[in-house]
Amino acid sequence: MTLQELVEFQKEFDGKHKGNFKWNIKVTDSNIEMLEFLLVSLTGEVGEVANIVKKIARGDFKLEEKKSDIQEELADVFIYLLKLSYQLDIDLENAYVEKMAKNRERFLKYEKIDTNGPEG
Questions:
Q1: Would the CA dihedral through 62, 68, 69, 73 be positive or negative?
Q2: Tens digits of residue pLDDT in 62-76
Q3: Which of 6, 10, 31, 111 is the most exposed place for a label (fewest CB within 10 A)?
């Protein structure tokens, strides 16, 4: 699936979701609490990934033991990114391409630095 197909798939799924509010509405100034909810949700999912990694780092688990849990939480992060992109009417694919062009330009500056250090 392309990124746009995934966005459409998510939008369709969200349109069928029942709850206290509509899950697939555009975010505007008049419903900014939806943006707040999405960002809190995204942050929560990133926190769940971080919590797993924290437990791996302190030695409770090996990475391989928790890789599927990390995968699932990263999928949740991705879902919220897809939701944010369509609910804010942002072309995530185009935004990525534009940002990578900026990053290439930015990091190209570092590639031109003499590898012998600042003193040359």
A1: positive
A2: 999 999 999 999 999
A3: 111
Domains parsed from the chain with CATH numbers: 3-90 (1.10.287)
Spatial separation of the C-alpha atoms in residues 97 and 101, rounded to whole Å: 6
From first CA to last CA, the distance across the chain in angstroms is: 49
**Distance between CA atoms of 2 and 83, rounded to whole angstroms?**
15
pLDDT tens per residue across span 38-60: 999 999 999 999 999 999 999 99
Quote the pTM value: 0.84
Range list of H helices, the chain: 3-16, 32-57, 63-87, 92-111
